[in-house]
Design brief:
Elements: H1 4-10, H2 15-36, E1 40-47, H3 55-78, E2 81-86, H4 94-107, E3 113-121, H5 123-137, H6 147-150, E4 164-167, E5 186-189, H7 199-210, H8 220-225
Parallel strand pairs: 1-3, 2-3, 4-5
Helix pairs in contact: 1-2, 2-3, 3-4
Bound molecules: 3-methylbut-3-enyl trihydrogen diphosphate and magnesium ion (MG).
Length: about 240
Amino acid sequence: MDGNGRWAKKRFLPRIAGHRRGVEAVRAMIKACVDLGVEYLTLFAFSSENWRRPAEEVSLLMQLFVRALEQEVARLHENQIRLRVIGDLSRFEPKLVTLIQQAEALTCNNTRLTLTIAANYGGRWDILQATHRLLADKPDLATSFTEDELTPYLSMSYTREPDLFIRTGGEQRISNFLLWQLAYTELYFTDTLWPDFDAKALNHAVHSYQQRERRFGRTSEQLRESLGSRASAPGGGPPDA
Ligand code: IPE
Ligand code: MG
């Protein structure tokens, strides 16, 4: 979700006004995804690198996160949305961590949409923490382990790999988001700033996705031959997407 600051600047508003509009865009996006039948929506809200921003902006972002949890979780639950937060929570205030844990516990059995918020998340951090936890559990794997042994320890082991990655705000990079999981994901970049990214913009992205041919390393001919049965990625990639 990129472009909140520029959205505000264009309107001679403080950056935080852009972040507030960003939260409204999140609300609208959740609804748009529910309407489309999307089962998993993962939002990159705050990266491990975002701590480098001015202290005031970081503090205002944290307040916004706390307030959003306080105000929105009941509504998420009413709408049968499961909330998960991934990332290194150890740097967050205890109050925020408690709110996150309560929200996850309250919504854990909801099945309509899983909304994952990546907060203090980094793709490299994720791979490292997974490796550390795997080796703590199974020290005998220290000299060698397989992808299938590692993936249950990654932050998003509860879902399939993503079908579509969308980055708003004009930059064309992954910026340390789900590095492992994006291996076969279709990438979509748009100049639209996050606060302006609405249901119509989402439809554009989905339409672009629908034009793509997902080969997972195979040839087009092989895909056509196996028409009817689904193409699956090597190494247990998106299995039943
Ligand atoms: C994204 O918007 C929101 C967060 C990273 C929290 P930015 O704050 O990066 O907005 P720009 O890139 O300055 O426009
Ligand atoms: Mg930015």
